[in-house]
């Protein structure tokens, strides 16, 4: 497949780097200010080192990518709330040209799911977004395979930064601020980790799952989720939990048409208490009972691999 | 008379006793005091819970009202009621509260929980880290009537809201308490 990759951050760059390995060609690539277009496929190594050294991917105007020859638009620009721009417009333009879309950006399917589905219905193109929930973990594809109507609940940990902070607090008996600073030093937490620790990022993923489960009956956005973060937790609360064989994790619960995110008491070595930056979810479905998926979710290459898996599915 | 007789039901009480002489006897007193009829005692000697308690199972007969008084009497006597009745109090859930627990009157908080009627506090563990006299945390173990976990948690949310306490709920989705 010929790919047009928007966003040259951790995810977009990794998609460009790994595309050839998966048998695809990147014909257009843009960041916020520049673009490179080549119908024969861009030179990934050259472009990525240009981005590293000069901060741009090429000399072309970002707009020019939409005129390129491509089959699939890969959307990896920043996730934004509300109107989900610029991601939403990118999706709109690709679908208007009957191209397929693969999202890493959560915004369009968390905040404007019905709009995206309506545009898709008018288009020959298809939208896939497996990478938006749990990165490399096959959470949405498992729900798709089991059948959304057979799934009664999805719950677990979907933010690696919050999980890292809580597992460190539990292991070391340290307080929140201390561990967060350490996580930033280690590069596990971003300079501005607000959305990770206040539950917003986890809630966006829960909302996406809720949209998939409801199969168009109800549209969910961030406003429909009940969200509480981990900023107020103290080391002594984790100690109290540990004395009872439990721990506290930032958990999303999608069940009975509701999305709730907040710190929850869970069994210490249980299915939804993964270690470090891992994610872990349980999917409850008819016939299979409780399905567990645990592993390293986020990260550039991890998320890029999920994007490329979606591209693969579009090719089939 | 016959009406009262029909009202009598069999209940199982699961207690956790401190490993001390006289504890078993002490736990039976509230049962007798509140008109319960003792059917059997299963004392799991040698079996100790992770926290060092001895589990005991007591089968009794009582009217629902008397049974309530018995459970309350046991809690008041400081005896850990882990499970009470096959119908009543069959669900165990743990929560953590944090904030100005003492200032907002912990015992009133506990009374409010008990007043919700479908739950009883069976254990409490308090942690007040040195240097911060005003912010403390507590882990509460509640025994809730079967099927009432959601009601109990929603009552807990109201109490926490009203007293401006932080509540950490157990994960209950998918029938896990
Ligand atoms: N990182 C992960 O593990 C992960 C996992 C799952 C999903 N995601 C989602 O994937 C997306 C990308 O994540 P990331 O970590 O790669 O983010 P990032 O490192 O912040 O990169 C964002 C990229 O988008 C570019 N961009 C911004 N506005 C643009 C526009 N109008 N047109 C074209 N490019 C534009 C930026 O350009 P400049 O370089 O010029 O600033 C930057 O290259 C986000 O939506 C994120 O939520 C990430």
Automatic annotation (TrEMBL), chain A:
Sites where the protein binds NADP(+):
7-12
InterPro entries for the chain: Glu/Leu/Phe/Val/Trp_DH_C, HDH_cat, HDH_CS, HDH_short, NAD(P)-bd_dom_sf
Keyword Protein biosynthesis applies: no
Give residues annotated as binding NADPH.
106
User: Which residues are listed for L-homoserine binding in this entry?
Assistant: 190
Question: Per its record, what are the GO molecular function terms?
Answer: homoserine dehydrogenase activity
Which residue range or ranges hold the Glutamate/phenylalanine/leucine/valine/L-tryptophan dehydrogenase C-terminal domain?
2-61
Q: Which residues form the active site?
A: 205 (proton donor)
**What EC class is this?**
oxidoreductase
Keyword flag Oxidoreductase: yes
Query: Where does the record place a coiled coil?
Result: none
Q: What is its EC number?
A: 1.1.1.3
Could you tell me which residue ranges the Homoserine dehydrogenase catalytic domain spans? 138-311
PANTHER family from the entry? Answer: HOMOSERINE DEHYDROGENASE (PTHR43331:SF1)
Q: Which family does it belong to?
A: Belongs to the homoserine dehydrogenase family.
Q: What is this protein called?
A: homoserine dehydrogenase
Q: What does the organism's lineage look like at the top? A: Archaea, Methanobacteriati, Methanobacteriota, Stenosarchaea group, Halobacteria
Automatic annotation (TrEMBL), chain B:
The UniProt entry, under CDD domains, shows: ACT_ThrD-II-like
Name of protein: Amino acid-binding protein
- Record the organism: Haloferax sulfurifontis ATCC BAA-897
